[in-house]
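Build the 3D complex.
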Amino acid sequence: MSGSSARVNVLLILLVLLVPAVANGACSSSRTPITVLCAGSLIVPIQELADEFEAAHPEFDVVVEGHGSIQVIREVTELHQEADVMVVADQSLLPMLMYGNKMPDSADDYANWYIRFATNRLGIAYTSQSKYAAEIGSANWYEVLSRPDVKVGISEPRIDSCGYRAFMVCQLAEDYYSDNTILERVMGDFSPPITVSDNLEAHVISVPQIVKPKRVIVRGYSVQLLGLLESGDLDYSFEYESVAKQHGLGFVELPPEIDLSSRDFADRYGQVVVKMDFQRFASINPEFRGEPIQYALTIPANSPRWDAAIQFAEFLLGPDGQRVFLESYQPTLVPPEADNPDNIPASLKPLLEEW
Amino acid sequence: MASEPKNEPKNIRTSRLRKVVPILILGLICIVAAVLVYAHPWSGSAADIEWNLTLVGSNSENVTLSLKDIKALEPKTGQGGFFTTTGVIHGPYNVKGVSIADLCELVGGMGPSDGVMVSARDGYSAFFEHDEVEGNIPTSEYDPATGNLKEVPHENLGLIVMYEQDGKPLSDDDGKPLRLAVAGDDRLLTEGFRWVRWVDRIEVIPNG
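Done.
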């Protein structure tokens, strides 16, 4: 090899090393990342919002991660992941796990406010191929689901909020339809059994450490049930309305008295508690009381890009966000509502007033 | 005078060297930086890490193993990946570790009515009944036609306490140094909640 060709080779190697490094540096410095952690059932509208936000604000790079709602919070408070915006499917989790929870080396809590902005309802997803699809409705759904030749799916109540909420719906249905066999008929037996006991305040559904069904088909996540519905391995599954409709599935709406959608029936929903024998997270008491499904947003106090987080939150809570959520079949709260309004960042406060 | 023609190339080489050396130094810095950036997640082999795995039997017998102890046990290999609650797929990976059934044997084994609680440093736990430890877990693959996960049958599936993923020690994000994996002969996917990261305790629960 001649001296000049060797030098050319050295320069080429350096170029190969330097160009990606420079390009990477240039890219990362030109776009500000915004990390959004969101509940799995919101992944479709939040990703759409992220795309629209980036199109309107090319200086930002929005990274969306979907988890179960508890895990969304744990990623920040226990695993110390940097996040800018957090959106959960159960508003009660934010004060439970972030208020009064001090950040490392700080006197401040991870959060001291949140904003409720959307709701949802639980119902029955199905396809046109599902048995008795032509006759199922809000008056006879539990009778159809109880038929021996109908295959019903639920997500794992120990893992997925949609799973334990399915038990709540069936228990609430017993009172609403005055038929105390609905839960047992729809869900069938489990070994060991899932039991219901009544105390002065509520029906308490006890889920044992093992969930081994004899009738219904249980999968860890509701996303798996969608595949089983479409393949015909299931006829019906309990699902959130937004998720079912986003996937083009049929959806049986249930009465608001039992579908966990309406604050008018909050007291009624609160008469059902699901209690797990299995503690999945050391920091969470695995006992869930029925309440209206309300999605909520906060910005963790240690967000590394606070101003960018505020801009994205404004977009999500404002008219653009409302439109995207409605297009994704996600009912919204207009205007959104604050918990601890005095602590809400000033630029978000106008969004909490009548538009 | 006669020596000048010989000296001239030397001077030229020196001058060129002066130009090249800073570039080489810069290149070296880049290489070191790249190594630091890209190798960081698994910098330091798993063998370097102080980590204890506590095994508790159904009769409360317990044994504590170091990473070195674990790697001295008969290794088990397989393939498997997982998906998240939103359907995002990770892997499949080539998995190497120790069978959870073999670990349970060290504290008296597992009866057909027993379960296993796998716990982690971060306070997370997953429970497995006997059937699941035997590999009776739904497996899926990505169906490009529908964009959904499609359930498919499997063979020789099992729970492995993994210390190597794709031939490398685990990164912090992947659960360094020990993660529970569901792996078998095929490159199939299972639910992510079973893939416990940072495993530090395995307990056989009688009549779980």
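Helices of chain B lie at 4-39, 67-72, 100-105, 130-133.
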